[in-house]
Amino acid sequence: MTIIGLHVGGEARRGPLSAKFIELAAPKADYLIITEDGNEDGYFTKLSKEKKIPLIVVKETTELGDLLKKIFQVK
């Protein structure tokens, strides 16, 4: 099973409550996919390097459909 961690809410969605979920779930992911504005502090970059999880950064959530098709090799 492939586990993908998504954070597409931007920096404004990263408060104390969401931090708990991110800290628990993100290290278990096979991929981390985030929007640029959700990683302005480099949190996900650091996490992906520490845990050796591929990090994919997108500008817009509209890019996700094609990206997921590529990851899961769907035509």
Terminal residue distance: 19 Å
Give me the side-by-side strand order of the main sheet: 1-2-3
Protein structure class: alpha/beta
Helix content: 25-40%
Query: Strand share of the residues?
Result: 15-25%
**Whole-number total of structural domains:** 1
- Low-confidence segments, given as residue ranges, are none
Total helical elements? 3
What's the main sheet like? 3 strands, parallel
Along the chain, the helix and strand elements come as EHEHEH
Gyration radius, to the nearest Å?
12 Å
List keywords for this structure.
75 residues, alpha/beta, globular, 36% helix
Overview of this protein structure:
- This protein has 75 residues and is an alpha/beta fold.
- The chain has one domain (4-71).
- The protein has helices at residues 16-25, 43-51, 64-71, and strands at 4-7, 31-35, 55-58.
- It has a 3-stranded parallel β-sheet with strand order 1-2-3, covered by helices on one side.
- The protein is globular.
- The model has no long low-confidence stretch (mean pLDDT 88).
Offer a concise description of the structure.
By secondary structure, the chain is α/β, with parallel strands linked by helices.
Task: List the SSEs and their pairings.
Elements: E1 4-7, H1 16-25, E2 31-35, H2 43-51, E3 55-58, H3 64-71
Parallel strand pairs: 1-2, 2-3
